[in-house]
Design brief:
By secondary structure, the chain is of the alpha+beta class. It has 8 helices and 11 strands.
């Protein structure tokens, strides 16, 4: 005599179901109301879920790129519940693929995410294996995911290029320079004085470096002060960043100093 589970299994196997966000799927296995397996067609993927959620259309295809038409959750142990990794991942995708974000920050228009990290499972696995991925500075600010400290100027988020650095260090390379037109960084022409002024942002405040006859003189003053300031700040953070990050920044500064 066929029991109730077998009867229902026979009735449901091969049946198509529409979902709210992932198209159609077909039921391929039934082990009870709490454990049914469906297969999506495009992209092809099998998912185990509860029958009640399937009937409500709440089952999603984890391989469907629903994040800016690029990123997808993937199949594995990580989910939205892994909040630290998930928030960092979605923010990264936003910087790379959000039209609204690029309108406000056009320098990110050429930024991309490597194919490996479009799958959240891969990104989360990397994230939780990084020493400083969940670190905070003394003010409670989370460390930033950075893509161009290890490889200066790189525009691809990838395991090879990325690291986590404190906000203060990250800010060293994003000063609000007092420059206009085509003047060098840190240089501003003061009309009233008829001379060029050099200035630098130091610990959140603008430091006046002097007035100069030429923009080149002003820039050299800025450059010297900036290199000295960076070395000072980097040494303060030496024990609070990875040795790889410390070495990369030190090498960059040494290279600049020899120019």
């Amino acid at each position: 005599m066929i029991n109730c589970v077998e009867k229902r299994k026979t009735a449901l196997l091969g049946k198509l179901y529409k979902t709210n966000n992932s198209g159609e799927c077909v039921l391929i296995d039934y082990r009870g109301a709490k454990h049914v397996t469906v297969t999506f067609f495009n992209p092809e993927c099998s998912v185990t879920c509860e029958l009640s959620n399937l009937l409500k259309g709440k089952v999603q295809n984890p391989l469907l790129p629903t994040f800016y038409n690029r990123g997808y959750i993937g199949v594995g142990k990580y989910s939205k519940k892994n909040k630290a990794a998930y928030t960092t991942w979605t923010s990264m995708l936003k910087r790379a693929y959000s039209f609204e974000f690029h309108t406000r920050y056009p320098t990110y228009k050429d930024v991309t995410v490597c194919s490996e990290w479009l799958n959240f499972q891969n990104f989360a696995e990397w994230f939780y294996n990084q020493e400083f991925s969940e670190a905070k500075d003394e003010k409670g600010n989370k460390y930033h995911l950075d893509k161009d400290i290890l490889d200066k100027g790189d525009k691809v988020y990838s395991p090879q290029n990325c690291c986590f650095i404190p906000q203060e260090l990250n800010g060293l390379f994003r000063d609000k320079y007092l420059s206009t037109g085509n003047l060098p960084k840190g240089v501003h022409f003061v009309i009233k004085k008829g001379r060029f002024r050099a200035s630098l942002s130091v610990y959140g405040k603008t430091k006046h470096l002097g007035y100069f006859e030429t923009q080149e003189e002003a820039f050299q003053a800025y450059k010297k002060a900036k290199e000295s300031y960076v070395k000072e700040v980097v040494e303060d953070w030496k024990e609070l960043v990875s040795s790889e990050v410390y070495q990369a920044i030190t090498n960059t500064q040494n290279a600049k100093g020899s120019e």
